[in-house]
Amino acid sequence: MKTVAVFVGSLRKESINRKFAEAIGKLAEGKLAFRFVEIGDLPLYNDDLWPDAPEAVHRVKREIEAADAVLFVTPEYNRAYTPAIKNVIDWGTRPWGKNSWEAKPSAVIGTTPGATGTAAAQNSLKGLLTVIDTVLMGQPEVYFTYKPELFADDGTVSCEKTRAFLTQWIDRFEAWIERTSEPRTKAQAGPA
């Protein structure tokens, strides 16, 4: 089973994007293993910190590198993705020559109570994800309007139509990861 490092752009304790990502993670059980990466403890990116970078930076880079794929779950702040997402991306690309995002299969999703379902935020983030060398899944897109009644008290998806839609997305992401993953070492790639 492939592991997915999940980056939730909202640091709020009651974040609907966190709840949404956790619900998708439950739906994906047996297909994909979601690993939620803590990003709230990262300092604001500053290149001067590299000589003695905080452990949180090294931990995040290790978690990115250990995952088979990455998933960004972003709310929409002023028609853009969040500063927390930008910050983790910047830390992951540095120092020069040690881009932890390199060749990682990736996807972007998000939710909001509004009708646009984080479309503007996702579209602006997608451009950045190609620049940092992730292998971005373009379709299907998930611009999700969050409604509490679609989810049960235990955090699972209670609406059958929503469950079917999200399961289709999970299946496509799983296939995307399989198709676009590059072997990490020659030993993993098998005999030549």
From TrEMBL:
InterPro entries (UniProt xref): Flavoprotein-like_sf (IPR029039), FMN_Rdtase-like_dom (IPR005025), NAD(P)H-dep_reductase (IPR050712)
Top-level taxon in the UniProt lineage: Bacteria
GO molecular function terms listed in the Swiss-Prot or TrEMBL record: FMN binding; oxidoreductase activity
GO cellular component, one term: cytosol
Gene3D superfamilies assigned: 3.40.50.360
Domain spans labelled NADPH-dependent FMN reductase-like: 4-145
Name of the protein: NADPH-dependent FMN reductase
Organism field: Aureimonas frigidaquae
